Amino acid sequence: MVHWADYMAGKIIRERGDKEEYVVESGITPSGYVHIGNFREFFTAYIVGHALRDRGKKVRHIHMWDDYDRFRKVPKNVPPEWKEHLTKPVREVPDPWSCHESYADHFMSLFEEEVSKLGIEVDFLHASELYRSGEYAEEVKLALENRDEIKAILDEFRDRAKQPHLEDSWQPVMVYCPHCRKEADFVSWDGEWKVRYKCPQCGAEGETDIREGNVKLRWRVDWPMRWAHFKVDFEPAGKDHLAAGSSYDTGKEIVKLFGWKAPLTLMYEFVGIKGQKGKMSGSKGNVILLSDLFEVLEPGIIRFIYAKARPNKELKIDLGLGLLNLYDEFDKVERIYFGLEHAKNSEEEEELKRTYELSMPKLPERLLAQAPFRFLATLVQMPHLDEDGIIRILQEQGHVPENLTEEDIERIRLRIRLAKNWVEKYAPEEVKFSLLEKPPEIELGPEVREAMLEVAEWLETHEKFSVDDLNNVIFDAAKKRGIPSKKWFKTLYNVFIGKDRGPRLAPFLASLKKEFVVRRLRMEA
């Protein structure tokens, strides 16, 4: 079974021909936080580029920051007085939090920092710089020359959607006022480099030279122009851009005017958080960022989430109990990659190995210690254990090797911190617990009391024991007295944490100080 990124890479080579360099593109307007849904476009472009490189091809991944788009509305988390900056380029709107050069920089810098942690190299380009440097000047002029053809293409698709035609005054460009920097009205074009404008905001009017960068192509023209300018071979897109008659359909026709062919594309579905209602929106503020995922997930696992899911399937990330299953799944795939475990069949095994390869920021030379996240979520809640103590317990119970390298220890410590964050921020109440400071005042029948004393005596007389040994003793003590397992475990959980249920009992008790467990089983303060 071929991984979807490899399939797409093969298709690009077949349809675009053998080239010296292939260009993949992603892009977004930094009008708000770049969330985990936006990241899917970025990662889809990246992973297809990764697959092309693995075939020995030279690849350039461009991520276009559309920071020359208009500031269209004031998000909820931005002061309302920012409405005075509406219609300016987002790159020229001040940063409301006063920590970056501009509003757009605030969001771009965070995302670029997040991406670097995932081991992804990309060319970040800025539309504002490209327009203002005059790099797009020839294409802007060409769009004005082909204004009628472009309008006819857009109107044709409007006919199909039974929408009214664009107004006769429509132009493929918009103008930023050179004085107040807000959107101005297009008045006329002289057929060469000058565009006449009139600003309804500040009242200024006059001419601006296209090469100065104040004249910008509208979205449906800008996108195909970019394909041609950078010779893009592949760019994924959301289903809104790929719907019939939408920007990709019109772009396929408009790009021909710029002398290029539309890139291959791949539709990606929305990404959300399990249990969260509605679509994430940077302007609404209901977003989860890569930074949020970094608090509970290793970088490789973040990449794994996106690498294993086919882009055309909606992706719901579970930060609750499902996160424990995700760690289990990833660890299993990692063991399969290193030949320590096997999948159901060879096809599935090859796909899982390939998914792992595409997921890792840097492929390790060997399997690093896998501290089970599920167990760590228990250990980090024990007040007597620091990081070193947790590592010791993991070694004693056979979860990690006795001889650990610095790399192993670094990974274990990272997982400990991630598990701690998960318990504090996302773990459901059923997973959380705290040790009772003193024995609870509960009614214990004579059989239960005897069984508890037997376990306590066994612990006192055994200096070393395995979790399995302890587990057998706990079960046998109840079984020989006819105590139902459900009642027995419920009692023990209530004795230690005051709840009817808790973490797996034997590993939990084996992780506590033996003296404490013995005293508690004897119900001594």
TrEMBL record:
Listed GO cellular component terms? Answer: cytoplasm
Chain ranges for the short sequence motif 'HIGH' region as given in the UniProt record: 30-38
Give compartment(s). Answer: Cytoplasm
> Residue numbers of motif 'KMSKS' region?
279-283
Q: Which InterPro entries match?
A: aa-tRNA-synth_I_cd-bd (IPR045462), aa-tRNA-synth_I_codon-bd_sub2 (IPR020751), aa-tRNA-synth_I_CS (IPR001412), aa_tRNA-synth_I_cd-bd_sf (IPR008925), Lys-tRNA-ligase (IPR002904), Lys-tRNA-ligase_SC_fold (IPR042078), Rossmann-like_a/b/a_fold (IPR014729)
* Catalysed reaction equations from the record: tRNA(Lys) + L-lysine + ATP = L-lysyl-tRNA(Lys) + AMP + diphosphate
Any idea where the Aminoacyl-tRNA synthetase class I anticodon-binding domain is? 443-522
EC annotation from Swiss-Prot or TrEMBL: 6.1.1.6
Gene3D superfamilies documented for this protein:
1.10.10.350, 1.10.10.770, HUPs (3.40.50.620), Lysine tRNA ligase, stem contact fold domain (6.10.20.10)
- Output the HAMAP family linked to this UniProt entry: Lys_tRNA_synth_class1
Q: What is this protein called?
A: Lysine--tRNA ligase
Source species of the chain:
Thermococcus profundus
State the gene name recorded for this protein.
Answer: lysS
